[in-house]
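Forwarding the complex inputs:
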Amino acid sequence: MMNTRTIMPVPTSENAYQGMRDRVGLGWRDELASGIIGNLDRIDMIEIIAENLFRARKDKLSAMQRLGEAVPITLHGVAMGLASTIAVDIKRVEKMARLVDAIAPQSWSEHLAFVRAGGIEIGHLAAPPRTTQTVEGALRNIATATRIVGSKPQLENIATLIDPPASTMDEPQWITHIVDGADCHLLLDLHNLYANARNFGRDPVEMLLRLPLHRVSNVHISGGHWIPEPDSEPPRMRLLDDHVHDAPPEVFDLLTLLAQHATQPLTVILERDGHYPQFDAILAQLDAARAALACGRQLARRCA
Amino acid sequence: MNPFLWSGPVFLLFYLLLGIVLFILLRWWMREDDLRLPRDLYAMAGDPYRIAYLRGGAPEAIKVVTISLIDRGLLKTEKRKVQLRDMEALKIAQRPIEKEVLRHYYTMQGIHHMPTEKLRAACVDYHDELTAQGLLVTPEEKRKRWAMAAIISGCLLIASAIKINIAFQLGKHNILFLVILTVLFMLLTIWTAGSRRSTAGNALMSDLQTFFQRVKVNSYTIDPGGATNEAVLLAAVFGAQFLPNEKFPFVNQLYPRTDGSSGGDGGGGDGGGGCGGGCGGCGGG
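Prediction (whole assembly, two chains):
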């Protein structure tokens, strides 16, 4: 299914989004509907989980399309499993393509993860071994998805509690190979990056700065909580990216750093999947994201 | 091939199809006429009172305002009587329509199902704003709709009259079904053309009912007290009868349902509508 839908090109210094600005939005959750609809003037973008709309009735799709005329929408897939040596499921990609046609979002995204193997659906986003084989597999799958949907996805880094065994490269290298090879935007999930860094003894700042920051378009911020690692001796804690807690200060610090180093406009999406606070608290986090972005941009100007 | 010479049942089928086609034509014309101008559908969506007015006019807006004031403790109820809590309530309420409702219950007690002229006047701003946004039909648009409805009704009446005349000339008097169909189409045309909401207004109401479906299904979780706006939104978008009786008993006392059934069912279940949850966190346990 080919079409000529226009998407934002990967930024270079020459074409870097003249006149565009940073944006802050959040993920659509039914539980937040009343707050979202009542505060559209404070929300620059809404991200919708694509799988939640695959079987939606026509009136729901129409409602989402009309909402998209009031505030930009981006679709976020969670079950394609692009980062895999296994070929992506064509039917799933076609569903995404139909949804993109119906909703006309500003962009769509998926995860750099695998979700199925050996005919078994994991039901979860899993980190594949970071090898040339999975890079090549990801590039094949991304090319297939791009051909069918008609536009390139933004690619999101995932959190993992397991450092993928048999890896021959580290996370920043692996992500860079894929996004450069596919010539795609990176949807940078800062809490995922932070959690991975903390869980595997790495420096989140160093990890961030080693990523192709010029390719970052959308940014996710969210929170998590520390859980004990089973059977660990001495006892250790792991940071679980559960999306039901506020984004911690460290994530906003990383956002400031990102804004300092990326020249292109950024769209920050707050993810919250449960334990919903009053909507004023959600709006406060959006404002905190705006402040972090502004701080980063100011630092960049001082250094320029 | 003169349809008016067809036998009764065949002509009835033809008339039914004619009526459906003309009705679809009316709906299509209304939609095309409404949507010629760009509208910011969601500019009006943040205010529950405005939504209530869009849904049901001044009576519904006043009802939702009253419920909101009672829920927030600015009005108090005793059985079917409503009173201002105290004069301080007038200072706490910020919205002009809320102040008007409070003043109304300062001077009068009890529920008046039809708003007084003063209360209706307090809703004029809503009417004007919604009309300016293209969500309510303007008088000019209404005239055009009625004109179109008259043309369509005229066509159907003439077709019906010709057939009845021919039937009588042939000595046939079994015209009851044709008369019933004619009346039904007239009523449908009048009801459609007489709609106070524009196509955009209907679309916005439909969208809000879609987006807030989960609020309606999970209404039993809404707590009174006005800490969130979910109770007011539920009443505004779907109607006060969907507020759960157990937590908002005053609603049924003040606005008894005419069909004898009780209000929001307090039932549970996380089903229906909406756009679901998130991706459940990534790389987690």
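Residues 139-169 of chain B form the longest helix (31 residues).
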